[in-house]
Predict the structure.
Amino acid sequence: MAMIELHDVRHAFSGNPVLRGVSLSWDAGEVMGLMGANGAGKSTLIKVLAGVHPLQHGRISVDGASPDAADGPLAARRLGIETVHQRIDEGVVPGLSVAENLLFERIAQGELPAVGSLRGLLPAARGVAAGLGLDWGDAVLRRDVHELGIADQQLVLLARALSRRPKLLVLDEPTSALSAAETERLFGVVEDMRRGGVAVLYVSHHINEVDRLADRIAVLRDGSIRSEQTQPFDWSVAVRDMLGERGVRELAEKNDQRGEDTVLELRGVQLFAGSAPFDLDLRRGEVTGVVGLLGAGKSELALGVFGAQPFQAGTMRLDGAPYAPKSPAKAVAEEVYLVPEDRAAQAMLPGWSIARTASLPFLRALSPSGVLQRRKERADGRAVIDRFGVVASSEAQGVDSLSGGNQQKVVVGRWLRGRPRVMLLDEPFRGIDIGARHDLSARVRELAAGGSAVVVLASDVDEVLEVADRVIVLVEGVPRLDSYAVDVTRDRIVARTAALNGEDVA
Ligand SMILES: Nc1ncnc2c1ncn2[C@@H]1O[C@H](COP(=O)(O)OP(=O)(O)OP(=O)(O)O)[C@@H](O)[C@H]1O
Ligand SMILES: [Mg+2]
């Protein structure tokens, strides 16, 4: 018998079947890669494994033992199942310090005091962070966990899971918030786990990650396992099994649409206190991709243009007129839009339907008389569902109950109906499956073709090359390369991103 056995696991939400009899098994020291389109049921399977959803049907065993269904997450943890869920907000505990979050289960189970001085917890917390190679000082450990960026919050959850020495480590899209360097760190951890005899379940939409880490893969489609493979994997088969007949179009050549007139001029803009000022022109009709590591200044650039956070210095002009938005509302009034990076916190309201969420940016336009036009709202919701293939029962479904990738499609897709002067998208492809990524890229390109200046900010070079005509590499707050995509190789972009050769703007 294998160390991990799932047998005929089924799950339904209010009568709607989502898992239709999943059986999988793998051994200690093996990494199982689980893949599938948005809404296939991956996270649901993980939540059943983790005891978050009670087991409705089937059997789960780890090392021959089965969890007691009545005990929920605690039973799963007792068996040695540690899970890092896809949504970070399902893992971090708001209002608590980083240290308390790192030690959360131990505090919850009474091994460590829940009240008393934070100082007493710091040595243990430092040890947990160090287990992931994080050298976090007391100042970081004392901060409220929500003051950390989402990448660091993700690292908190990983470090916590590792510190519990799991038999089965479950990672649901763990790299979606991480930069390249942190992703490498995570890969190292997974490889150590495998060597140490831990079984790993790894969910990702990134073929290169799964190809590198997994010993075997399973493809889930519509709640059923369609195929399983062992190394070496045939990815064309796996992708077909993920997406069905639809398949996926290969990117034949680079995009090369040249914009004409400048819409937005940045002059003497300084992103960080110590960084050099620079000028930048964004042109109508082209998609500009901005790549850079975490902390390179992508979000500072986007937030500054959107009026959400001032630049350290510098001025802007929009279609020739001075532009100095004091707030996002002012930017939106000038038709400058931003789809922010941290969607769960910034762009989604719990309890709202898809329809309401889809029309959120346009609420004012929808309610000229102050009364929401519900029919229009529903039509907007349906339009987003149709255009992006959102897996949902109807536009009335709550956004909260959508799969991670489908939430992403709704919050990004809702912006793509207007025709703004400037459209900024910060990490728009996060958590989106391969098929949906192609669809979204195509919509983003249509926006530029329709006359907007479009900026896509991302840390993944391949995502940027799929959508962009022009590529800018940001290093420590300064553009170090600015070129049309056709004039530069992928390798050169990667090298510049890591600041490997220090020449200036190409
Ligand atoms: N709490 C819930 N209530 C109702 N339906 C739900 C709930 N959670 C998930 N679903 C539905 O179950 C289906 C599978 O969702 P799940 O999150 O498991 O997909 P996934 O494979 O993880 O997708 P993604 O790649 O987008 O993360 C979706 O149709 C989703 O809307
Ligand atoms: Mg998921």
